[in-house]
Amino acid sequence: MPASYAYLGPEGTFTEVALRTLPEAATRELIPYVSVQSALDAVRVGEAEAAFVPIENSVEGGITTTLDELVAGTPLTIYREVLLSITFALLVRPGTKLSDIKTVTAHPAAQPQVRNWLRTHLPDAVWESAASNADGARLVQEGRYDAAFAGEFAAARYGLEALETEIHDAENAQTRFVLVGRPARPAAPTGADKTSVVLWQRDDHPGGLRDLLGEFATRGINLMLLQSRPTGAGIGNYCFCVDAEGHISDRRMAEALTGLKRICLQVRFLGSYPRADVHPGEVRPPFPGTSDEEFVGAAEWVARCQDGRF
After folding, report:
1. Which pTM does this prediction carry?
2. Are the C-beta atoms of 174 and 61 separated by less than 8 Å?
3. For the segment 153-194, what is each residue's pLDDT rounded down to a tens digit?
4. Residues 106, 14: contact at Cβ < 8 Å?
5. Percentage helix, strand, coil, to 5, in the chain?
6. Burial of 213 (0-12, 13-18, 19+ CB in 10 A)
């Protein structure tokens, strides 16, 4: 397989900046793709070793384009995640003034992060979405739009200037990116890990979601993301994307996934991988009764009971 990583392009995206923080990126050819779907498809068909795409931001939550691609189609696996602090610049062609701006563009995920700024400074500007923030900058360069919200670093790449910088509605906004490859054995646990799955209910019934979440709760597993996504099978038909603290090799996580596989119509394992927000020493200890040692001890006790050795 080619020693290359696909990423949401074109050059100059936040995705590219985040990707370059991975040490292994220095040894790979980095290839921009026009969409999340095309980047992930490059992995599916063997054009790239892995793809790097945004999956969540701290303002709007899960990025639906990426979640839906991981829910459907040929399975892929998450191997790494990166958190990147996000602040936007308003990029324009040289000489453009704020009063000249009638149209603006950026990736759809950017709009909720600059909505209040737009309302205050450009209340009459018309917003249109672009495939990525850097693609929006390219469209401004071509004269299609008057301004684009993108990283300030993209200005030089597209011959633009930053009319305004440090634009953000929420302080400390972050976007989470993931490195996605073809299915393989998860990396060894680090002690600060995350497991991602997609869950489909067998049927719609009162307490159905509670039953799914109970498999985690009874084993002391904290959830970090829970987002419903339509299955396409009709109104009211949803699956659930879940990020949970822990690794599939942890006894409590393995038992939770076993229970979910038993009660769900379908479970798609998206991977166990190191968390980007904490170090192993910062992870809180398991709740009483949920450590690997306690799971092993309980299983040994049941075995002794089955043998008549109470």
Report:
1. 0.88
2. no
3. 999 999 999 999 999 988 888 999 999 999 999 999 999 999
4. no
5. 30, 30, 35
6. middle
